[in-house]
Amino acid sequence: MILIVDDRPENIFSLKSILELHSFAVDTAGSGDEALTKTLKNNYSLIILDVQMPGMDGFEVAEFLSGNNRTRDIPLIFLSAVNTEKKFITKGYASGAVDYIVKPIDTDILLLKVKTLHRLYEQHSQLLTTQAKLESEITFRIIAEAEIREKARELHGILASIPQVAFTATALGEIDYVNERWYDYSPSLEKFPGVCPGDPVISDQWKKMLGGTSALELETRIGKLDSNDFRYHLLRVVPVAEHGKVIRWVGTFTDIEEQKQVEKKKDEFLSIASHELKTPLTSIKGYLQIMDKVLTEDGKTRAFAERALNQVNKLDGLINDLLDVSKIENGELKFDLHELNFEELVASTLDMLRQIYPAVTIEHNNTVDAWTRGNALRLEQVIINFISNAIKYTPSCTRLSVITRVTEEGNLYFGVQDAGIGISAENQEKIFGKFFRVSESAARAQGLGIGLYICAEILNRHDAKFGVQSEPGKGSLFYFTLPLIVKE
After folding, report:
1. CB 367 within 8 Å of CB 413
2. Hey, which of 112, 199, 336, 452 would disulfide with 195, CB 3.0 to 4.6 Å?
3. 479: helix, coil or strand?
């Protein structure tokens, strides 16, 4: 906005009309006092000031404006019809004016100067605004960097005090801090500790992790420098994120050798106990089967024998599961894969299960004539486990659904849908773990919590994807997918 200051209304009117005709916003003041009052309240890009005014003349107004921080940068143009001598023009420039125009005014020249000064003032204002923003941004960054450095010092202090090997890295994966224990296993900041031959290479897993935002957990054996003694460590790397973006990584190596040895001894015990129990149990089972055939007349005695045989069969199943776990842990769970008609396998397995559970309606309407590569006995074991669990964990189960289909990705899909107790989201992540049992189901069904663990290992050997979809109180859907073989 441009301010015109003149004590003569006719002069104000003519100037105001010319400027508004050229799209300038204009304000006016009839005296020096009024002009000063308005400049303290409003922002002006230019002031056109008459020199000869009663009371406070133009020179006094200019001197006041140039001495005020708020108004000293506003360009001034003096207009005068009387004070046209050199000494007055010089005084005008000395008072803070950028131009001095004598009347009569050349309209074209006035407009040219007004446009130029107005544009220069706007550019100057924009520069001041940009400068203020830059100064604010610099101040913000200085404060933010100071806070980050303080947080880093706190984090480094914590990592220096813990017994684990610890480190931090930038978002791009460049290690920028390690605690003292790092140098027991690595000669430099740039190199991860060396691993036992045959274990996963840490740098390879590190590169894969950097492509996402998920934490890394890896069990591997690392050894101290100049030592051939490799101990199991759990490498855990977690992201530090701000506004959904990873800004750094924090990692630790925790010694778990003692836990691994305890687990190994437990597995060895289970293997030995399972094998030792298997022989006498087989003999007991054989004798009970003979008794069941011999006791044809005494119905009551035969019922006892059938019940005993039923319990022996359950115990036999548990021991077989323990043997499978032992084979998995020792890398001895071996089986061959062959081409097989999956629908035929499902149909024969369901026929058997319908005889075992005559009170349960097992629906299977959407059959698919599809082939895959697998081991029929082991896949049957998985299907039996999924369906048996669905029945066990569904109160008064009378019906469940089996689903087979070909997915949009071209894989073979198998699923078992029940209306049982359901599984929480937290437990869904653990349900396929070894010896895991949902606490809510402990009183409902017996077992060691290894059936789904064995299923997971079998499915992994088939390159299958598997999982569970569930909600507490609304049932569960256990499923797996297998690569499909297209028959010519």
Report:
1. no
2. 199
3. strand
pTM for the structure as a whole: 0.45
Q: Reduced to 3 states, what is the DSSP secondary structure of residue 70?
A: coil
CA–CA separation, 241 vs 131, rounded Å?
31
Integer Cα distance of 210 and 400 in angstroms: 43
Kindly tell me the burial class for residue 53, based on how many C-beta atoms sit within 10 Å of its own C-beta (0-12, 13-18, 19 or more).
buried
C-alpha count within 13 angstroms, C-beta hemisphere, residue 428? 17
Integer-rounded Cα Rg, in Å, for the chain is: 44
Q: Residue 234's closest CA among 189, 285, 199? A: 199
| C-alpha–C-alpha distance, residues 21 and 336, integer Å | 94
Q: How many CA atoms lie within 13 A of 395 on its CB side?
A: 7
* Rounded CA separation 151/174 (Å): 18
Q: Which residue has the higher pLDDT, 444 or 456?
A: 456
- CA atoms of 215 and 208, how far apart (whole Å): 11
Q: Which amino acid is at 126?
A: Q
The one-letter amino acid code at 149 reads R
What is the distance between the alpha carbons of residues 45 and 63, in angstroms, rounded to a whole number? 17
Alpha-carbon distances of 252 from 158, 178, 215, 255, rounded to whole Å? 12, 10, 12, 10
415 contacts 306 by C-beta, under 8 angstroms: no
How would residue 442 be classed by pLDDT, with cut points 50, 70 and 90? very low
Enumerate residues 6+ apart whose C-beta is below 8 A from 225: 184, 185, 186, 187
User: To 10 degrees, what angle do helices 299-329 and 257-294 make?
Assistant: 150
**Mean pLDDT along residues 155-166:** 85
Banded model confidence at residue 307, pLDDT cuts 50, 70, 90:
low
Q: Alpha-carbon distance 116 to 347, whole Å?
A: 91
Q: Considering Cα of 155, then 157, then 159, then 162, what sign does the dihedral take?
A: negative
Residues 170 and 265: beta-carbon distance below 8 Å: no
What stretch of H or E contains 405? strand 399-406
Which amino acid is it at 104? Answer: P
